Amino acid sequence: MPELPEVETIRCDLAPELTGRRIVAVRVHKPDIVLSPTSAQRLTRALAGERIVEVSRRAKNLLFRLDSGRLLLTQVRMTGRFVLGPPLPARSELKHVAAEFDLDDGRTLYYDDVRRLGGFTLLSEGEWSVWEARLGPEPLEEDFTARLLADRLSRSRAPIKSFLLDQRRIAGIGNIYASEALHRARVDPRRTAGSLKPLEVTRLHRAIRAVLRDALAGSGTTLRDYRAVNGRSGRFQNSLRAYGREGEPCRRCRSRVRRIVQAGRSTFYCSGCQS
DNA sequence: CTTGTACCCTGACCGC
DNA sequence: TGCGGTCAGGGTACAA
User: Fold this and answer.
1) Residues 154-193 of A with CB under 7 A from strand C
2) CATH code where residue A253 lies
C-alpha cells in the first residue's frame, strides 16, 4: 500500500469530512475485500446507523472509530483509494468500486481497488489491541528513539532492507521509503541489521524520520496507482534519490544507482556512497 | 524463534 | 494486433 506518508495523507483528507458523520447505508460490490472473520453481509448490517467519531491511523492501517466503540479497519495496500462524492467522481477514479458508504449528509464515500488486495474488517476494542500488539513503533512518534532502533537492530540478522519492511519491528515503512532511508543514511541495503555501527544507526534513525516527514509534507509519492482522496497525486516522487532510478547517476556521488532483489522485492541503492 | 518464498489480484508495459 | 512474460507502493500463511 501506500506507506505511512500516503496513508496519513488519506487520513488527513478524510478526517474533517467524516468525523461526526453517520453511515446510512453500505453496499459491498466485491465481497472479497471484506476480510474474515467479518463478511460482506455482516459489515453491511453492522455499519448501518453507526456514527464515525474519529479517523485515525496506525502504521499503514486506517481506522474509523465508531460510536459503538468498534473500529472499522482499512488497509488500502497497493491500489485501494477513497473518493468522496458528490459531485459524482470522474469515471477514471471509479473503475473498480468495491464498496460504497452512504453518509447522513447526502454524500457517498467510495472505495475503489483494482487489484482488491486491500480491504476492511470490523474489530472490537479488544480485537484491535491484539492486532496492534503485533506492530512495531511509529517512526514519527517521539518514543521512536535511536536507542530503541539500535536495540531492535541488534536482535536481527536479517538484511537491513528486509528489517525495515518488517512491520513488527518498525511500523509504516514500505518498499519505497526503505530504499530512500538507506540511501540518505548511506547504508548498504545488503548489510545485516545487527551489523550496523552506532554512527550508522544514528544516521539511519535520522534518515527514516526525515524521509517520512518530507514525504508527508509532499502528500506522499505517486508512481502509478496511489492517489489521495478525490484523485489528488502526491509530489514526493520528484524527490526520490534511489527508488526507481536504476542506471541513473546518484545525486550525491554520481555513481550508478543499482537495482537488486531482496526477499522478492526491488531494492535501489547507490553502489558508490552506500557501503 | 527467525528468515525467505509463494500467493492473493489486475493492469501496464516490453519484446517478439 | 496479439501473446507471453515481468513487474507493481502489501501482508499473510507456510516452509525451511
Assistant:
1) 165, 167, 174-176
2) 1.10.8.50
Q: Is A89 designated active site?
A: no
Residues A123 and A153 in one domain: no
A84 touches strand C (CB under 7 A): no
Domain coverage including residue A213: 146-270
Asked if A83 and A198 sit in the same domain, the reply is: no
Instruction: Give the predicted TM-score (pTM) of the model.
Output: 0.97
Q: Give the C-alpha distances (Å, rounded to integers) separating A249 from A7, A94, A178, A180, A265.
A: 30, 38, 19, 15, 22
Question: Is the distance between the Cβ of A139 and the closest atom of strand B smaller than 7 Å?
Answer: no
Strand locations in chain A, DSSP E? 23-28, 52-58, 61-66, 71-75, 80-85, 97-103, 108-113, 119-123, 257-262, 265-270
Q: Residue A137 falls within a domain, yes or no?
A: no
Cell reading at A115: 487489484
Query: Within this chain, do residues A117 and A192 fall inside the same structural domain, yes or no?
Result: no
Is the domain of A152 the same as that of A128?
no
pLDDT class for A1, splitting at 50, 70, 90? Answer: low
Q: Are residues A150 and A245 in the same domain?
A: yes
pLDDT tens column, A132-185: 999 999 999 999 999 999 999 999 999 999 999 999 999 999 999 999 999 999
